[in-house]
Amino acid sequence: MPETTKRASQATLHELLDEVADDVAAQVFTHSSWSSRRADSYERLAFLGDSVLALAVTTHLYPRLEADRYGAGSLTKIRAQAVSGRSCRAVAERLGVPERLRAAAPAEAAGTIAALVSTERVLASVIEAVIGACYLQFGYETTSAAVIDAFMPEIEEALEHPVDFKSALQERLARRGALVTYDVIDEQGPPHDRTFEIRASIGGVEVGRGTGRSKKDAEQEAAQAALGTIEQ
């Protein structure tokens, strides 16, 4: 076994990233607007990393949670929360992704870099690209172990405090005979890396908005915002 692989087998995601080949690492931190060739950006690596992340977390959760208490629906919700855009952003910030993006940005991107490094969709995509790059170089076993280590705070939070703001909102509204509706009011990004903005309304009146990398995530955020505006 090569020495690099021996070290990487027990490495954190941050350490694996430091050992990724320079050309691949450069791609991880290249936004599509910074290159004339979209293929040189992080998008394909993010597509790959998204699948690796989902499998790693699923493989971790499946034997850990008792079948009698956690059916497929519960597992899906817990995994979705653990790998959500919000969770990916938190991991990206812990790994110093915003700083790496700033360092990689070309001079002509100076005016937009501040907005990019604060955008959940971008940070989540880059952390997925990191995972994809590590998977290509170090394989699944090494990468998945590092992924679980990196996402453990988010996994534990999902297990201890499962988030279902939509159900909480509907239960509160049911007591007054009201219903909430959710509408997509904006979509941005390519088909495989979409960001949705959702509006929650009651009786035609907007009560909250949310954004997310899936409609479900955006609806949860909109419901959370609505809960903050509606009296108990």
Task: Give the secondary structure arrangement, pairings included.
Elements: H1 3-8, H2 13-19, H3 22-28, H4 43-64, H5 72-82, H6 85-94, H7 97-104, H8 113-116, H9 120-138, H10 140-160, H11 165-174, E1 180-188, E2 195-202, E3 205-212, H12 215-227
Antiparallel strand pairs: 1-2, 2-3
Helix pairs in contact: 4-9, 4-10, 5-10, 6-9, 9-10, 11-12
Would you give an account of this structure?
It contains 12 helices and 3 strands, in the order αααααααααααβββα. A 3-stranded antiparallel β-sheet has the order 1-2-3. It is mainly α and 232 residues long. Helix 5 crosses helix 10. The longest helix is centred in the N-terminal third of the chain and has 22 residues, at 43-64. Strand 1 (180-188) and strand 2 (195-202) form a beta hairpin. The radius of gyration is 19 Å and the shape is globular. Mean pLDDT is 90; it is low at 1-9.
Strands ordered across the widest β-sheet: 1-2-3
What is the gyration radius calculated from CA atoms?
Answer: 19 Å
The proportion of residues forming helix, as a percent range, comes to: 55-70%
Q: Low-confidence parts lasting 5 or more residues at pLDDT below 50?
A: 1-9
Largest sheet: 3 strands, antiparallel
Assembly of the depicted chains:
single chain
The span between the termini is 61 Å
* SSE arrangement, N to C: HHHHHHHHHHHEEEH
Strand content: 5-15%
Mean pLDDT: 90
Structural class: mainly alpha
Overall form: globular
Q: What's the tally of helices?
A: 12
Q: Please count the beta strands (DSSP E, at least 2 residues each).
A: 3
Record keyword descriptors for this entry.
3-stranded antiparallel sheet, 232 residues, 59% helix, disordered N terminus, mainly alpha
